[in-house]
Design a protein that fits this description.
372 residues, six-stranded parallel sheet, globular, 12 strands
Length: 372
């Protein structure tokens, strides 16, 4: 009222004064809203729709942002690096001030992220580290080395390796060579299992046994493609298991590869039962949860991607507010140009007996989706 009175005192008429007061009452909130929208303009770049988890990740984060009043452009790159680069360029041109990028290939994004930095856009690497650039502000992921450790420890425990049991026939697989996470998954598992390979408790009839963690890509499956894992397992079975040899355990770093491996074993006559191989996995995809319930897969390492999406959402809110995002690791993830400040979340093992309590009761999957 005091502002109105001052305006009224200098205005020519009462009508002009009321008009000016009305304009002052409507313009300021509109400008504030526009500024807030501009600050929270987020580009989300996911690698593919071919894996269930990326669909879930992208849509969940987009919803969180939109519910908070942010602009959120979600794009999927169909596992094509050129397409992802083009999509990121378009997001920056569209005013994105924060980019959330799950890289198709973490080695090729340096130039486009330099463009983004030139427009003062902040970059959060989502679950996959982006290498070779200083223009990555944060990294949010699960403890990927621990994912592999949990897989290796599960195999160690189930086979009784620490008690001297063996020998067992092992066939190890690794993830996509262009995915930075794949080396962490494999290293975590191989640090547990390699000593048993060297002692002879684990035997790899195919010879596909990396001598060290550094050789992991030699058994990597490009693009995490299920059919490629199936073809590779078909080749190993036909070439190295033609006699009485049987597979006792398969180290599969994720569920997509596990599905292909399971299909290959089925074709070769393997059926769930006492002599069926142990098979690891990761992601708790619905098809694999069904496989676990049916005895076709032994375990999966569950990364509750809802917690990852929520963590990234919180980081975006902090950045938008002009604050540093919260991290809990400033030492582990060196991308070749810098150690990227990171937030790591804990994964956990899920076996048949855990499906209801961990996955269904938490709302991660519906009971009806897995026949419960």
């Amino acid at each position: 009222m005091s502002l109105t009175k001052r305006i009224f005192a200098v205005a020519a008429t009462g009508a002009v004064a009321l008009s000016l007061a009305a304009c002052a009452g409507t313009t300021a909130p509109a400008n504030d809203g526009a500024a807030a929208s501009a600050d929270c303009n987020v580009g989300i770049s996911m690698p593919t729709r071919s894996l269930e988890r990326w669909i879930n990740d992208g849509e969940q984060l987009q919803k969180l942002l939109k519910d908070a009043g942010c602009t959120a452009d979600l794009q999927y790159a169909d596992n094509k690096t050129d397409l992802q680069i083009s999509q990121i360029q378009n997001q920056v041109a569209g005013g994105a001030k924060i980019l959330v990028v799950a890289a198709v290939d973490g080695e090729v994004l340096a130039p486009v992220l330099a463009e983004a930095a030139g427009q003062d856009a902040k970059v959060i690497a989502y679950d996959r580290l982006i290498n070779g650039t200083e223009n990555v502000d944060y990294y949010a992921t699960f403890d990927n080395y621990k994912v592999g450790t949990l897989q290796g420890q599960y195999i160690e425990e189930q086979l009784g390796l620490a008690d001297g049991a063996g020998p067992f026939n092992l066939e190890p697989f690794a993830g996509s060579p262009d995915d930075n996470n794949a080396k962490f998954f494999f290293s975590g598992a191989w640090d547990v299992l390699l000593p048993y390979v060297e002692s002879g408790q684990l035997v790899v009839p195919s010879g596909k046994s990396p001598s060290s963690n550094d050789d992991w890509a030699s058994i990597g499956i490009q693009g995490w493609v299920s059919s490629a894992a199936q073809a590779e397992m078909d080749n190993r079975l036909s070439s190295f298991y033609s006699g009485s040899e049987v597979v006792d355990v398969v180290l599969s770093p994720n569920d997509s590869l596990a599905i292909g491996i399971i299909a290959s074993l089925k074709s070769a006559g393997y059926t769930p039962g006492e002599s069926y191989p142990l098979i690891s996995g990761q992601d708790a995809d619905k098809a694999n949860v069904l496989a676990i319930l049916d005895g076709e897969q032994s375990m999966t390492v569950w990364k509750d991607t809802r917690t990852l999406g929520k963590q990234v959402f919180d980081m975006i809110q902090q950045i938008t507010a002009g604050e540093d995002a919260t991290v809990n690791d400033t030492e582990t993830y060196d991308n070749g140009k810098k150690v990227v400040p990171s937030f790591l979340l804990d994964p956990e093992v899920v076996v048949k007996d855990d499906v209801q309590s961990k996955l269904v009761d938490s709302g991660f999957i519906k009971a009806s989706d897995v026949g419960l």
